[in-house]
Amino acid sequence: MTAEPLGTAGIDRRPRRALFLAGLVITVVFVNACLFGLLGVLLQPGMDLQHGLLAVLYVGPVLAIQLLYFSRPAIRLDTRLAKATLGVQTGLAYLPVLHFDEALTSLTTIAAGSSLLILRPRVGWPVFTTLIAATSWILWFYADSALGATIDTISAVVYGLVTYLLTWLARLVNELHQARTELARRAVAEQRLAFAKDLHDLLGLGLSAISLKGELVHRLLRKSPRRAREELAEITGIAQRTLSDVRSVARGYRELSLDKESRTAVSLLSASNVAVRVDLEQVELPVKLRTLLAKVLREGVTNVLRYTGVQHCEIAVRAGEGRVALEIVHDGTAHEDVPAETAESLREVTDEVIGHGGTLSAGPDSAGRWRLHAELPVPEQADPAEAALARSPSHWSRIDARNVQWMLTAVFIAFGLSAMSRVFNLTGDGWRIALIAGPITALVTLQLAYFARPNVRLRSRRSYALLFVQACLVFLPLIPLGHAWVSLPSLFAGTALLVLPPIAGWAAFAATVAGPVLIRIDSGAGFLDAFNTFASQVNTGLMVFGLIWLTRLVTELGETRKRLAEVAVAEERLRFARDLHDLLGMSLSAIALKSELTSRIMDIDTTRASDELLEILGLTRQALTDVRSVASGYRELSLDKESRSAQAVLTAADVQVRLEMEHGDLPAPVRTVLAVVLRESVTNVLRHSKVERCEIAVRRVGNGVALDIVNDGVENGRPQNPDKPARVEVAGSGITNMSDRVAGLGGELTAGVEADGRFRLRAVVPV
């Protein structure tokens, strides 16, 4: 069982594209951070070739370990080798202090971030704090001023957290993608346990009772015919009740969509000139609960259409305090014959609601309007998909999301503090400081409150408007401040990449990065200062883009994994419902039929009655086997065996049968589907038709095989056009099941009345 049908191709491309972009962002950020420190060393006055090569040798291994080992998603980091490599990287990161003072402390921040990646949180955070404290001590020891040391310390904390977040999020994208199939398997396994329980509780007891009573009747057949007849009557009743249970369970496992039903309701009511207001609160509900609410909604809307004078209708679904409620209110009045019909139509769904521990009431309210109110408890036990997700070892949990959110908050606040600390290097004017502090505070607040939230729709009018507000907060203070301008243009650059289309986003990013560099050059800054500004803007902009984008992508993939698991469960539920109906329906119908037949012929032909009883026992044992096969997985059926069984059942019902099997070797899936179609068709023949003759034929046709089942039990007579067979729709789930199975193999199933008045069901499947 796989979850591939859910747009798998698109899902497969997205993580690969994400990993490529994440790798590109990580590479640029780390290379820029190291390159700035390296250029600072190489451009020092009096730097000789030997010391220059030494600086390169210090930077190269630390950067290589980070990019080629720690940042590769496919490599496991919970190994001794990874911890040993972290030790080597940390040692190499601090060695340059012996020769170059604080110039290469960007290497120590990378090592600090890697410690969070490699070590468990209990160890990782103390190590991270220790390494950042050591870096801070180096910066303060060699700093020219306390303000400069403060700025550098804040930058070290930011780069350390960003190193961890970017790398961890990129790895998590890969893990979530790789684990999606395993999650689907777990969810299906959970669902199969529920299948087995339902089968055991609802069907096992009934079939066992039939088997036991069949043995008893066989012994009593000659000794006590009266007692045997009573037991046969009980067998017939048990078979009919069990068949009803089969249909009930099959229906219960067919999931209905509450959203789809609400849209259908709006369409139907609007077509009847009824003004509809729908208020569906988005609530996470188990599949059975969603399906039951959809049934209540469908029945409620059907009843609305039975009323006259309906002008307004309100449909609402709300949840709270462990319960969910559906309410349908309208202003119509009933026909004279509607109340009894309405009560009858609501009785079944009311019983089902009560069976789930809920309540359903329908009738006029105090305002004279008709109101249907259904309320159900929401069980604490999660769906199989949710249970499997909770146990998944690498899942994107709420704890993970909270940790990322507070770290993102810390990073953006640090960006703001770093910008504010630079203000004091430029001016001591309180008015200018306030003019800078206000927009910077607003920028950080806007970033955290809106753009950094993973559930915000970024390609929207609101996002475009807030991006414009962000641009104003960044650039408008430049007019009164001039060269004293300090802001966070990198926030706008990174956010523009997220919000705008790619070409516009990169154009805005490039223009935003170039602006501060040109301002620095215009104010007389040298090459190193200009490069510092450029590298800082590029790095910070890419950090903003990478952190928010990867957080959003991980959140989306986490939801996608859950949806994939839900799809896998839904497909398994549908498979279960089909197999349950197709495999057991005919067996139970045949048991009931043969029980009645045996009861009729007991006094006439004891030997034949004994034979029929033996067949009942055989059918019962086969049904018990089918119960186990449905619960455990797909079952391969024998087409020849099913054809002989169908012939025996029809013959027992006094139907003349002609059987023609000329199909040759067929693939197992084709044999199984045709066997299921044959079994279900014969069940329908016995249930719905007054049949005297039936023909069953399986023949090769071109590149496929065709199954034809023709009978003369049509009750509605000939079609209106005798020259052309009519394709008809047959009520019930049997035809739908068969059609779905045949279509799943690329075939087609048709059913209709032929010109001679006989009913033909034809299934053609390519081989």
Automatic annotation (TrEMBL):
InterPro entries attached to this UniProt entry: HATPase_C_sf, Sensor_HK_TwoCompSys, Sig_transdc_His_kin_sub3_dim/P
Entry protein name: Signal transduction histidine kinase
CDD domains assigned to the protein according to its UniProt record, in alphabetical order: HATPase_UhpB-NarQ-NarX-like (cd16917)
Keyword DNA damage: no
Boundaries of every Signal transduction histidine kinase subgroup 3 dimerisation and phosphoacceptor domain copy: 192-255, 572-636
Coiled coil: none
SUPFAM superfamilies assigned to the protein according to its UniProt record, in alphabetical order: ATPase domain of HSP90 chaperone/DNA topoisomerase II/histidine kinase (SSF55874)
GO molecular function per UniProt: kinase activity
Record organism: Amycolatopsis roodepoortensis
Bilayer-crossing regions: 18-43, 49-70, 123-143, 149-170, 406-424, 430-452, 464-486, 492-519, 531-550
Keyword terms of this UniProt record: Kinase, Membrane, Transferase, Transmembrane, Transmembrane helix, Two-component regulatory system
Keyword Transmembrane: yes
